[in-house]
């Protein structure tokens, strides 16, 4: 069974977070542990992710907030070939995040390259870490399918997301698409430009 790598954001994911429940509910999933959750540094975090990908051989990614930017930062790197697909939940916007948590994050600028693996972005109408306009922009730039979760905040514990069965269903749709692409006897294409759909 293909491993699923769980990528939390700033401060990690607490015990009641949906990512923690995901680890409990899916034995094939594993947390990409970072040494410093409170002061993320892109190169350090990415080195941990790439080492975990190399150990896994290939994997899916399920990311939240800053973890989505970590996954997107793999574009253009050799390690990206090991990613089967990614579920990117409530990606944060670096300028907004820096205003909320000044000086904590050293992640450079927002990744803008198209992702060479199938991806779905899940966002909301009222996320203080990413406006809807910016969410739509980056989903398009990344070549991701965009799902609008409505008034779901940052899709975290504070907005009522503990165990999240709906996320499991969306992830199964992502996996089904990667399996479909595997049957095409050519290089796997991208899912295409972002398209908004009801959640």
From TrEMBL:
The protein's superkingdom reads Bacteria
Extract the InterPro entries matched here: AB_hydrolase_fold, RBBP9/YdeN
Instruction: Please list the GO terms describing molecular function.
Output: hydrolase activity
Q: Which SUPFAM superfamilies match?
A: alpha/beta-Hydrolases
Q: Which Pfam families match?
A: Ser_hydrolase (PF06821)
| Name this protein carries in UniProt | Alpha/beta hydrolase
